[in-house]
Amino acid sequence: MVALTFPDGARRDYPDGITGFDIAKGISPSLAKRTVAMALDGVVVDLADTIEKDARIEFVSREDPRALELIRHDTAHVLAEAVQALWPGTQVTIGPVIENGFYYDFQRNQPFTPEDLPVIEKKMKEIIARDKPFTKEIWSREDAKKVFADKGENFKVELINAIPEDQSLKIYKQGDWFDLCRGPHMTSTGKIGNAFKLMRVAGAYWRGDSNNPMLSRIYGTAFAKQEELDTYLKNMEEAEKRDHRKLGREMDLFHFQEEGPGTVFWHANGWTIFQEIVAYMRRRLRGEYQEVNAPQMLDKSLWETSGHWGWFRENMFQATSAGDDTEDERVYAIKPMNCPGHIQIFKHGLKSYRDLPLRMAEFGIVHRYEPSGAMHGLLRVRAFTQDDAHIFCTEDQMADECMKINDLILSTYADFGFDGALTVKLSTRPEKRVGSDAAWDHAEDIMQNVLKKIEEQGGGRIKTAINPGEGAFYGPKFEYVLRDAIGRDWQCGTTQVDFNLPDRFDAFYIAADGSKKPPVMIHRAICGSMERFLGVVLEHFAGHMPLWLAPKQAMVCTITSDADDYAIEVRDAARKLGLRVDADLKNEKINYKVREHSLTKVPALLVVGKKEAETRSVSIRRLGSEKQTVMSLDEALKTLSAEALPPDLKRAQA
RNA sequence: GCUGCCGUAGCUCAGUGGUAGAGCACCUCAUUGGUAAUGAGGAGGUCCACAGUUCGAUCCUGUGUGGCAGCACCA
User: Fold this and answer.
1) Which residues of A are catalytic?
2) Which DSSP category does A336 fall into?
3) Complex ipTM more than 0.90, yes or no
4) Based on the structure, what is the number of domains in chain A?
């Protein structure tokens, strides 16, 4: 007998080997009908599974949030059946559930095209309408291998070989079609419903390794209800609207062109935002850091010493004299990082332990030859500005410095309006690395403790995680991942502890006992890449920048030319207060001007006509609102300039 | 870098084996208006580059280059 506890607390005995389905049917046929799976002690399993031991049991309906994963996984199976029905000979590989949907990878001589998707969807609907039950069988390894090998499913054979010997092989059947699968599944294909959609086709490497052949992947998504699918698709459209590349064009912020792949042409508007962010960061460093500037290119020998030339040469730019007759054969590397430069500055002149911690900052422009397919607007470029700093300190000071950086990062993100969830990930030693295992053990140990402290201080808002093997070649690192207004995560800030580079460059300080000691070096960036951070901020606000960041903070718009003189006066008065304001005196209707400047996302429109000129007032219309507020010029300017104050200065004033 | 798709006016996009079009933007003229497009006219193109096929290529083929969606990569 097994004793099962139901959600209402009732406890009943059942014979060994009874299935979830039998129990549900025993309670009521309608329950059995609408149940798609069960959860035993919270673990979702097939409803047809036999129950062998005491457990808490819950019946999962397809509306249950836990069923969503099953719906998506089942849809992936149906997708695979549909594809094999349409194009026999196509090999199936894997089809997991991912965030927001699922995919299935196929091996087919001819890749899929977007036109294939509706055809496949139609076939999938047929399969779902047939409503065949999902049934599970346990096969022996040899049988399974033979069956799949006979079918020409070589990838499946490879998968079977990769499954540990002590695990059983589960085969799920839906009618005549079957697949090797871990499960669980719902009771039948009909339970999937019709709220699914195939999204796109793409290439993807077998087992995620670029040495392997490329497969054809089909991405799709599925929901329990049509309305949920519709909402999801609408959200996708919304995300597209706030694409920073689109906003960059519409707001005249920047552009790219063929001659400079991955390098930004900053227009006046975009550069204003960029400089506003830099100015903010610079204020935050005041007193604590010294700002420096190291050369843009340095002899490659320096990069050989640092190890970059060895590990990352493929991703570096080099420069030589362009002259035909030059005798100068030296090869320079354009800096991909600022650290070797900063170490040179540290080494210049003898340093004492009294100088530590020495915090050296630079808004350094670095160039990295990113793979062509990696480039993406401002988010991944080949030339970018880091809000970089290197902290030279003693080992004892290290943990405190990490916490200090943590505070700086958290408060900065808050100032830019990122008040959502935050994740700090600790990335540990990678395969490609320098330094002894003992040094790595030590560094990772300290970082672990700091991570714990970060989580404790976060008051529940900060999640932490470990990324094994993802560290930099010279040391472990923290990665700060922020969440934007529509729930997307972006890795921006980073703190990296480094016991290696100072040593490689023979950097040292004189300790209290008069001995030479290598400093510990902490690499850190708050925004990371300014270009990328700007892109993220832009998408976060969907272009509706807070006043302090807006490139054009206000536009004075005249209604008739009678107000021209007054409009100029308003503009100049605002400029005198440091506001970025223009006047639009064009011979156009006010409707036209409101539309034009709303489209370029100017936060405040100061409309002036005859009335305002006579009473020395302005009619303010804020972006995103149709409301008009009339106030005196003095009051309006006072309000605007107060609002335009960056958050850190506002804090200082309070 | 890999797979697939794409490159025509500043932008969004039609189109054709016989060297090209629309809307918006731009310029000019008229219009002086109260919160998301006033009307009329004008100007604007090496149809990404190079090679090939062809009497003739923006169109077909190849190579390169840049972009888009994924994958891989991201010190």
Assistant:
1) 339, 368, 386, 388, 390, 477, 523
2) S
3) yes
4) 4
